[in-house]
Design brief:
With about 190 residues, this protein is of the alpha+beta class. The protein has one domain: q2cbj1_9rhob like domain (Jelly Rolls). About 20% of the residues lie in helices and about 40% in strands. Strand 8 and strand 9 form a beta hairpin. The protein is globular and about 40 Å long.
């Protein structure tokens, strides 16, 4: 018997649930400049719930490079109107995480994001040194699985609390760097 998780009762905002696009070129250049200038400031990242790990060893599977507040705001400000147009809903910025740099052998366990604060989201691909393309495996609003491949400067918009998504195949390569950006609909704040 099919039993839904609470996240699956969130209404879908788009037909399919995700789409890929390109990040604004000037913003991507700022992100790359910051990233290359701060590579040595990466710190081991603890992801609550153990979602990111190196399967073979059980070690933490990523490092993080913290972003300055002004760059976080610029990312939110750039993506917000695009995500509002795509989702046809007014959004409130909630979180922009730092640059997550996955390590060789890492997996991102498939999951649905936090209710309320991580409803409409974007992943910006920043950098990758891979031996084999590393897909984001995501279900659409019809429970069909898709393998989505991003190159640096590309973005996926997705209904992150509703759709199961992850990178369950171990990373074959040295690193894969992303930024996660989250929003919640204005009408959810009132609930």
């Amino acid at each position: 018997m099919f039993t839904k998780e609470p996240n699956e009762y969130i209404p879908n905002y788009t037909q399919v649930g995700f789409k890929t696009t390109k990040l604004d070129a000037q913003l991507f250049e700022k992100i790359i400049d910051f990233y290359t200038s701060n590579l040595e400031k990466n710190k081991p990242e603890f992801v609550e719930g153990g979602y990111v790990e190196i399967q073979e060893t059980g070690e933490f599977g990523s490092d993080v490079i913290e972003l300055p507040d002004e760059l976080r705001k610029e990312i939110h400000d750039s993506l917000k109107p695009q995500l509002e147009t795509w989702s046809k809903t007014e959004l409130i910025p909630t979180f922009v995480y730092g640059i997550r740099v996955y390590k060789k052998g890492s997996v991102l366990i498939s999951h649905r994001d936090k209710l309320k604060t991580h409803i409409i989201s974007a992943i910006i691909n920043v950098d990758q040194v891979v031996d084999e393309d590393w897909p984001l495996i995501i279900e659409d609003n019809y429970y069909r699985k898709h393998h989505v491949f991003l190159n640096p400067g590309e973005v996926i918009f997705y209904e992150s609390a509703r759709l199961d998504h992850g990178r369950p195949l171990p990373l074959k390569g040295n690193k894969f760097a992303n930024i996660f950006c989250h929003f919640m609909p204005v009408n959810m704040e009132k609930n």
